[in-house]
Amino acid sequence: MTETAHMSLEHRVKEQLDRFRGDFVQLRREIGKVIVGQDDIVEGVLTALVAGGHVLLEGVPGLGKTLLVRTLADALHAQFARIQFTPDLMPADLIGTNVMLQADDGERRFQFQPGPIFSNVLLADEINRATPKTQSALLEAMQEHSVTVAGVTHRLEGLFFVLATQNPLEMEGTYPLPEAQLDRFFFKLLVKFPRIDEMETILDRTTETHTPRAERLFEADRILEMSRLARQIPIADDMRRYAIRLVMATHPDDENASPMARQFVRYGASPRGAQAVILAAKIKAILDGRYHVSRDDIRAVAHAALRHRLILNFEGQAEDVQTDQVIDNIVATTPETTAAKAMT
Known about the structure:
Elements: H1 3-32, H2 39-51, E1 55-58, H3 65-76, E2 80-84, H4 91-95, E3 96-102, E4 108-114, E5 121-125, H5 132-135, H6 137-144, E6 146-149, E7 152-155, E8 161-166, H7 179-182, E9 187-190, H8 196-206, H9 221-230, H10 237-248, H11 259-264, E10 265-267, H12 271-287, H13 295-306, E11 311-312, H14 314-318, H15 323-333, H16 339-343
Helix pairs in contact: 1-2, 2-12, 10-12, 10-13, 12-13, 13-15
């Protein structure tokens, strides 16, 4: 490649990344017209969206979780669906079913009637209130972007983003999410209660005559373009190994395990955890105006990417240890370089 061609390619890549950053910031700003505060939550949701993952939001009722995902769908001009999960919700209520229809010629035939899962942005509200059978109906859709009914596979075309919510306070009548489904969420984000100044702004926006609403910015396909671009960001070998060491440090039997992981963790994060850390770190690098991943990027996304992938043992549960505390310990004790690298 000639020097001119190389410079032209570099300029084109820079333009694409600048546009990526501009669209991300614009989308975040548009959501901010409706959602007060929760900047970390909004950025986390958008990061997972661009990475092609899904988000589990945990927070008490009334913090705007439903409004956040509806606002996101408005800004993307995306098809939005909300499902209220209840103990009597069946898989067919989620993915759809075959129904018998009678044609004009009198012949009867089965036809597939798609469920609400056939949308671009899906809100699974209070997901832990449904039975494991219904929860598992989401597994294939979240991972494979398809559902299978009566032996026939139906594709979920285009953007498909699941944002599930759960209430950490009410445990009666709930079914804890199985580990296999938790692992399919890119991030788990903890929604905090608003501050006093944010509460005032919320009341101003919700008790006056004018209710703010997000404007349509671009089509949902733009998110897919941004996702492909984010994956092209390079990551140095030592940065990738650092992310791997962080994930391996969550496994109590691994030689890289942190002290708290050895004491309080039963099972550590899966390879999907490492994938989430690296993809999210790439997006964070772009937003910072850099074209390479740093250790700070990896550390910044570690909690959201790993907190739901750690399973505590009996001692950890008995002492009310939080997985975020374990991740703090992992970040603090994991060496930035391997021993061999440090000696060179």
